[in-house]
């Protein structure tokens, strides 16, 4: 292999390979050193913020009983999903994106692809659970406590994780997504690549199951929620002059529910904004003979990963309880005096 490289033209000799001593190795992506360093800095920062931010959410809900309610248990599970993405998926994707090489072998490539698909599916299904929770809280408040119990929420979370695992690992390891693409995979495969191809059928089915159907359900529920919330606000404004103390308490509760629904709608909106370009490209790519450049796919994947960093930031800005718990936790970590921090009510 080395002798062959010596006989190549100057342009070809400059090509670097993922595994220089193996025949059939993939070429590395050539980038200026300053660009590579900038990419690593950006991606490492994103990973650290994702892991640390979601750990704050996990610790907050786990250790403060005031945050123990069905909605926050779903948010806790969602934070676990995002934290797993930051710990087990993003670091390996970072090396692949910057170097253009996969150094961990074919089998771990399948595991990585399956986990990546599983966690993104689990995320949006969790947000779907949150929208259902908010729908019952806003649109059927009298039945909320009987319909949405901790047991039902935990059962729903377990089903969500299980379905995402079976679906994602089943698709990748059964290779149904590559049926009919055998020649393309042989032509494009090389040592050091880790690409997930979808044929036309599964290029539609997988995004439908993982993204578009749950996204449509969430959108419909939130439209209904905001319609009901606006109607309640109008009724409250008409009755403001004759309210009793009990009614004021109910109104305050309704206001908190609406604010929670608004905040979680922002979480959903950010998720859709981050992942929509990737899933649209996944659907279109098989129909344009896989002409989408790998660089574009990498950029869209990282734009999707960016969502996992945004969720804790949104909670910190919009939820007073999370703001207080974050301050308490950070104060204890850095050895600051916590007496000046207001205790949760």
From TrEMBL:
<keyword id="KW-1015">Disulfide bond</keyword>
<feature type="transmembrane region" description="Helical">
    <location>
        <begin position="204"/>
        <end position="226"/>
    </location>
</feature>
<feature type="transmembrane region" description="Helical">
    <location>
        <begin position="73"/>
        <end position="95"/>
    </location>
</feature>
<dbReference type="GO" id="GO:0001594">
    <property type="term" value="F:trace-amine receptor activity"/>
</dbReference>
<keyword id="KW-0472">Membrane</keyword>
<feature type="transmembrane region" description="Helical">
    <location>
        <begin position="264"/>
        <end position="284"/>
    </location>
</feature>
<feature type="domain" description="G-protein coupled receptors family 1 profile">
    <location>
        <begin position="53"/>
        <end position="315"/>
    </location>
</feature>
<keyword id="KW-0297">G-protein coupled receptor</keyword>
<comment type="similarity">
    <text>Belongs to the G-protein coupled receptor 1 family.</text>
</comment>
<protein>
    <submittedName>
        <fullName>Trace amine-associated receptor 4-like</fullName>
    </submittedName>
</protein>
<keyword id="KW-0325">Glycoprotein</keyword>
<keyword id="KW-1133">Transmembrane helix</keyword>
<feature type="transmembrane region" description="Helical">
    <location>
        <begin position="115"/>
        <end position="137"/>
    </location>
</feature>
<dbReference type="InterPro" id="IPR050569">
    <property type="entry name" value="TAAR"/>
</dbReference>
<keyword id="KW-0812">Transmembrane</keyword>
<keyword id="KW-1003">Cell membrane</keyword>
<keyword id="KW-0675">Receptor</keyword>
<dbReference type="InterPro" id="IPR009132">
    <property type="entry name" value="TAAR_fam"/>
</dbReference>
<feature type="transmembrane region" description="Helical">
    <location>
        <begin position="149"/>
        <end position="172"/>
    </location>
</feature>
<feature type="transmembrane region" description="Helical">
    <location>
        <begin position="37"/>
        <end position="61"/>
    </location>
</feature>
<dbReference type="GO" id="GO:0005886">
    <property type="term" value="C:plasma membrane"/>
</dbReference>
<dbReference type="InterPro" id="IPR009133">
    <property type="entry name" value="TAAR1"/>
</dbReference>
<keyword id="KW-0807">Transducer</keyword>
<dbReference type="InterPro" id="IPR000276">
    <property type="entry name" value="GPCR_Rhodpsn"/>
</dbReference>
<dbReference type="InterPro" id="IPR017452">
    <property type="entry name" value="GPCR_Rhodpsn_7TM"/>
</dbReference>
<feature type="transmembrane region" description="Helical">
    <location>
        <begin position="290"/>
        <end position="318"/>
    </location>
</feature>
<dbReference type="Pfam" id="PF00001">
    <property type="entry name" value="7tm_1"/>
</dbReference>
């Amino acid at each position: 292999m080395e002798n062959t490289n010596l006989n190549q033209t100057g342009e070809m000799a400059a090509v670097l390979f993922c595994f220089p001593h193996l025949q059939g190795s993939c070429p590395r992506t050539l980038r200026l050193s300053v660009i590579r360093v900038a990419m690593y800095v950006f991606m490492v920062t994103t990973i650290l913020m994702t892991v640390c931010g979601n750990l704050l959410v996990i610790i907050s809900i786990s250790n403060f009983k005031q945050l123990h309610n069905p909605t926050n248990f779903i948010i806790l599970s969602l934070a676990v999903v995002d934290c797993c993405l930051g710990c087990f998926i993003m670091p390996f994707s970072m090396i692949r994106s910057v170097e253009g090489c996969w150094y961990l072998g074919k089998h771990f490539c399948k595991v990585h692809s399956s986990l990546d698909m599983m966690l993104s599916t689990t995320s949006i299904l969790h947000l779907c659970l949150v929208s259902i929770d908010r729908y019952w809280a806003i649109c059927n408040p009298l039945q909320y406590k009987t319909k949405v119990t901790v047991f039902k929420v935990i059962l729903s979370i377990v089903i969500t994780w299980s379905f995402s695992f079976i679906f994602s690992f089943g698709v990748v390891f059964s290779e149904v997504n590559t049926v009919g693409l055998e020649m393309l995979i042989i032509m494009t495969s090389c040592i050091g690549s880790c690409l997930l191809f979808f044929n036309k059928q599964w290029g539609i089915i997988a995004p439908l199951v993982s993204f578009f159907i749950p996204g449509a359900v969430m959108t419909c529920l939130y439209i209904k929620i905001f319609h009901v919330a606006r109607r309640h606000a109008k009724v409250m404004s008409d009755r403001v002059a004759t309210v009793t103390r009990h009614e004021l308490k109910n109104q305050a509760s309704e206001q908190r529910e609406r604010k929670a629904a608004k905040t979680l709608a922002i979480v959903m909106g950010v998720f859709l904004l981050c992942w929509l370009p990737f899933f649209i490209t996944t659907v279109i790519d098989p129909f344009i003979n896989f002409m989408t450049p790998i660089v574009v796919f990498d950029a869209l994947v990282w734009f999707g990963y960016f969502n996992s960093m945004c969720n804790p930031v949104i909670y910190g800005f919009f939820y007073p309880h999370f703001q207080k718990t974050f301050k308490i936790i950070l104060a204890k970590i850095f050895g600051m005096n916590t007496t000046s921090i207001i205790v949760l009510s």
